[in-house]
Amino acid sequence: MAIRILVGVKRAIDYAVKIQVKTDKTGVVTDGVKHSMNPFDEIAVEEAIRLKEKKIAQEIIAVSCGPAQCQETLRTALALGADRAIHVEVSGKDYEMLQPLAVSKLISAIAKKENVDLILLGKQAIDDDSNQTGQMVAGLLSWPQAVFASKVDIKDKQAEVVREIDGGLETIRVKLPAVITADLRLNQPRFANLPSIQKAKKKPMAKMSPKDLGVDIKPHLEYLSYEEPPKRQGGGRVSSVDELISKLKEKGLI
Amino acid sequence: MQMKTCEYILHHLLPPVRYACLLVPELTLSILTSSNPLWHVPYEEAMTKLDRSDPWWAFLWPGSQGLSRYLLDNKSLIRGRHVLDIGCGCGASAIAAKMAGAMNVIANDIDKDALIATCHNARLNNITIDKYSSDNILENSLLTFKKNTIDMLIIGDMCYDDQLAKQILNLIIVARQYHIHVLLADPGRYSFKSIVFNQLNDKMKCTCEYPIVDRDYIESDFKTIQIWTT
Predict the structure, then answer these.
(1) Strand (E) or helix (H) holding A75
(2) How many Cα atoms are found within 13 Å in the side-chain-facing hemisphere of A228?
(3) What DSSP state is assigned to residue A229?
(4) Buried-state track B53-88, b at ≥16 Cβ within 10 A, e below 16
(5) Segments forming the whole domain that contains residue A18
(6) What was the pLDDT predicted at A254?
(7) How far is A30 from chain B (nearest CA, A)?
(8) Which sequence ranges form a coiled-coil region, renumbered to this chain (chain B) (predicted)?
(9) Residue A191: pLDDT band by 50, 70, 90 thresholds?
(10) Which stretches of chain B drop beneath a pLDDT of 50?
(11) B58-229: what fold?
(12) What are the extents of the domains in chain B?
């Protein structure tokens, strides 16, 4: 029986953009800044498509939580091969304060509603680097989790996943339904060409609100301030080992 | 602001494709196909090259393919008619209607680039389209039907979301009041079934079905194009 997959995609500031912190330290500048699908989510989408191409999966549903612009990110997922998309609308101040726990609740609600066998997510978003959503979804659903996946094999309602961990590689087997998060080396994602993007504009895109899912997205964490990392100070050159030693002594380092 | 005109794109980036698609080899069109390198690059690169983000008119969609084939195969139904093609895109159906013997053809699209593309493509096929319109007919069908003598309305694959399907449904209802014959192409979209066909039921019938055979347009969800008539 081919499985059904839910893939989460986040619209985040593009990796190549030079981030600017707002002068009032309440966040980073996002207006007019290039956004794109979180790179780890691209890897998750690619893995879902490959599973569908191998006929292990029969349907891929893409979901994104955020403002109207998320629909562009969802269109890209559709263009790459997702069958339909769900946009959970969260905008304005609500979106500014949308945190991983709330997103996890939303994704869990959709996973239950759609009765999926597998949830594929990027391991973390490159804007907040939280690395929490996958784990919390698994916790909320009481599903097994296999995070930081660098290889996924699915057979007989089980997933064998190779995980990249500090000590090396770990292989675990989890029963479906499960949550898997994608790490960098899981695959090399394809890109969407223009015709597939245009075709995707005619694919079904469902819209709903957190209220429709019975989820309270109120934040539990308060962000105190955002600051740029300290500016890199210039270095100095020394002309001899003796000078190096005296400079180090000067700075009280030896 | 766009720097490249549609004319520029048609002349420099979209060379005429003879035998534009397997289903309608009679047409030569300046469209994007998989034989064009722009088909294969990442979409952002293609959009930058075309200086546009929504070039619907640069493709020969299955809906248009099906309609064009039907028109060319049923000349007796088209001969002498006054046809309005709504959402003409590259103009294939409008051109096919003229080729099939329509007396008068109006090509309509809210995107003015589509009208430029239609004019260009008509010329490639030695056809003259009688009138071009960029009116938003879905928002104001009465005005269009009052302004022009129309007895046939052709609609490509446009019922892809509920809102559009409702507007198309209303358009068809008004067209019928004006005794305008309607031809509509659909690949099996949910919104067409649940809204348009659901309401019009016995007033519309599927008269023909064509397989989607072009590799460029094969999608896992749709295998054929159905032609519906009132």
Answers:
(1) helix A70-80
(2) 11
(3) P
(4) eebbbbbbbbbbbbbbbbbbebeebbeebbbbbbbb
(5) 3-251
(6) 86
(7) 20
(8) none
(9) very high
(10) none
(11) Rossmann fold (3.40.50)
(12) 58-229
Q: What is the mean pLDDT of chain A?
A: 95
Alpha-carbon span A85 to A74, nearest angstrom: 6
Contact A193 B32 (CB under 8 A): no
Confidence (pLDDT) at B218: 81
**For residue B2, what pLDDT is reported?**
66
Locate the chain A residue with the closest alpha carbon to B164. A202
| Length reported for chain A | 254
- Say how many C-beta atoms besides its own lie within 10 A of residue A45's C-beta: 30
Yes or no, beta carbons of B40 and A196 under 8 Å apart: no
Q: At a CB cut-off of 8 Å and minimum separation 6, what does B159 contact?
A: B165, B168, B184, B186, B189, B191, B192, B195, B196
* A195 at B interface, C-beta within 8 A: yes
Task: Note whether A204 contacts B: Cβ–Cβ < 8 A.
Answer: yes
Residue with tokens 């129309």, as numbered in its chain: B150
- pLDDT tens track for B41-82: 999 999 999 998 899 999 999 999 999 999 999 999 999 999
Q: From CA A63, how far away is CA A45, in angstroms rounded?
A: 11
- Token couple for A27: 């966040």
B46, B157, B189: residue with CB nearest A194: B46
Q: What pTM value is reported for the model?
A: 0.90
